[in-house]
């Protein structure tokens, strides 16, 4: 019986790398599934990720390529989410330290250097950062994950099925909202609300400082700075 060539055997066992196009499709799948107003907050982790997998594998941009498995998509998203969250902090630090005369490229270079120094690896997901950085759904998830110190990484068991992993915020479903209004808030809920309020206030103060610095600049603002200024002003109105 003929055996396949060694090169063929090794290629089948080789871990398939994710391309920039695949990353963007996966991000789109996560964002669109998270924003699904019909399913919303009632999604369990199993069905949630099955929907993402279906969305991803059915993309017309991937015609002719081998389908991804559920575990591959979950692992890739976890890595994207983790590294992009870390880079957001590095970019904000670079932006705060931006001096007069520095342009967008200078800020990006500084952010990449900060990331490299902090985590001892190069940041290679700039395309993912650009897809996520201004998306309200992801931003709310990032802020929630960053502000609440109780980082539960294990899925909660609900009726024998996994609920969506903590840190992956979802839209509030109608049923869940009504049920929440009817029951009394526990001490835990009140504590989380206080923490959330404090962090919101800190976030507003930080944005106000950035806005004041941008408004005080005498040099013409770059395209990125103008976009950031308009974004902050719209949020503060």
TrEMBL record:
Residues 10-81 form the Myb-like domain. Gene3D superfamilies: Homeodomain-like. InterPro entries: SANT/Myb. PANTHER family: GLYCINE-RICH PROTEIN-RELATED, PTHR45023. This is Myb-like domain-containing protein.
């Amino acid at each position: 019986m003929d055996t396949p060539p060694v090169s063929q055997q090794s290629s089948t066992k080789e871990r398939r790398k994710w391309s920039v196009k695949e990353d963007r499709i996966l991000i789109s799948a996560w964002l669109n599934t998270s924003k699904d107003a019909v399913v919303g907050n009632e999604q369990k982790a199993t069905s949630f990720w099955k929907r993402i997998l279906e969305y991803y594998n059915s993309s017309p941009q991937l015609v002719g390529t081998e389908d991804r498995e559920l575990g591959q998509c979950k692992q890739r998203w976890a890595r994207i989410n983790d590294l992009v969250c870390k880079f957001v902090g590095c970019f904000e630090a670079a932006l705060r330290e931006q001096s007069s005369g520095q342009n967008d490229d200078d800020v990006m270079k500084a952010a990449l250097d900060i990331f490299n120094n902090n985590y001892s690896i190069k940041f290679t997901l700039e395309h993912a950062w650009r897809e996520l950085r201004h998306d309200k759904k992801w931003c709310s998830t990032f802020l929630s994950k960053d502000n609440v110190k109780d980082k539960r990484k294990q899925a909660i068991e609900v009726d024998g099925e996994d609920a969506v992993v903590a840190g992956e915020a979802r839209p509030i479903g109608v049923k869940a909202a009504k049920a929440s209004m009817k029951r009394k808030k526990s001490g835990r809920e009140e504590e989380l609300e206080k923490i959330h309020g404090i962090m919101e206030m800190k976030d507003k103060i930080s944005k106000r400082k950035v806005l004041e610095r941008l408004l005080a600049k005498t040099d013409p603002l770059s395209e990125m700075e103008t976009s950031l200024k308009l974004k902050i002003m719209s949020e503060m109105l």
